[in-house]
Design a protein that fits this description.
By secondary structure, the chain is mainly beta. It is globular. It has a single domain, classed as lipopolysaccharide transport protein A fold, CATH 2.60.450.10. β1 (31-42) and β2 (45-57) form a beta hairpin. The protein has one helix and twelve strands.
């Protein structure tokens, strides 16, 4: 009797999974959200606030992702309480890789007043690295700016590698050393 009950239980679970798969049309999201206001806290402090008009959750696929077809705004606070924001008209987050693809009218403003504008920006959340192979413009808090074709750097812009660019860099002569 126990054996029969166990077989029936596992058969029902298997059938339930198959029915669940059949109820979704191919390529359909497993969930859809509207008016998203997701807050992430650490030790009682707000660390991240994600705002989006629409979210499509494709975590049911072999390569799961979340899509934000009507744009996204993400607010970040660092350990010192400085707020940074990123906005884009479209975004997609890949769960397995931790990569976020921001597209169309991407604007990133750091807590240190660095402003980055681009048509597309990738953010590697695991490695805390941002990069693009599209044209961009960046303005630093000291008034320096850079227009370029592509770049990569860490997410707080203390490391910034640019390719094919032009701009204005301001140098404080009082902080330079004489080279002899």
């Amino acid at each position: 009797m126990v054996l029969l009950l166990t077989i029936t239980l596992f058969a029902c679970e298997s059938n339930y999974q198959n029915v669940k798969k059949l109820s979704l049309s191919d390529g359909a999201p497993v969930a859809e959200g509207k008016g998203i206001n997701f807050k992430y806290t650490d030790s009682g402090k707000l660390v991240t606030n994600l705002l989006a008009e629409k979210l499509l959750d494709y975590s049911n696929l072999e390569f799961p992702y979340k899509e934000f077809p009507k744009g996204i705004e993400v607010r970040f606070w660092d350990k010192e309480g400085k707020k940074s924001t990123v906005n884009s008209d479209y975004a997609i987050q890949y769960e397995k890789t931790g990569l976020v693809d921001l597209r169309k009218n991407v604007v990133l403003v750091t807590g240190d007043s660095v402003v980055l504008k681009a048509n597309q920006l990738y953010w590697d959340q695991k490695n805390e690295w941002v990069f693009t192979d599209q044209p961009y413009q960046i303005k630093f808090k000291d008034g320096s700016y850079n227009d370029g074709a592509r770049f990569d750097g860490n997410q707080d812009f203390t490391i910034f590698l640019s390719r094919k660019n032009q701009g204005v860099q301001l140098i404080d002569k009082t902080k330079t050393e004489d080279v002899k």
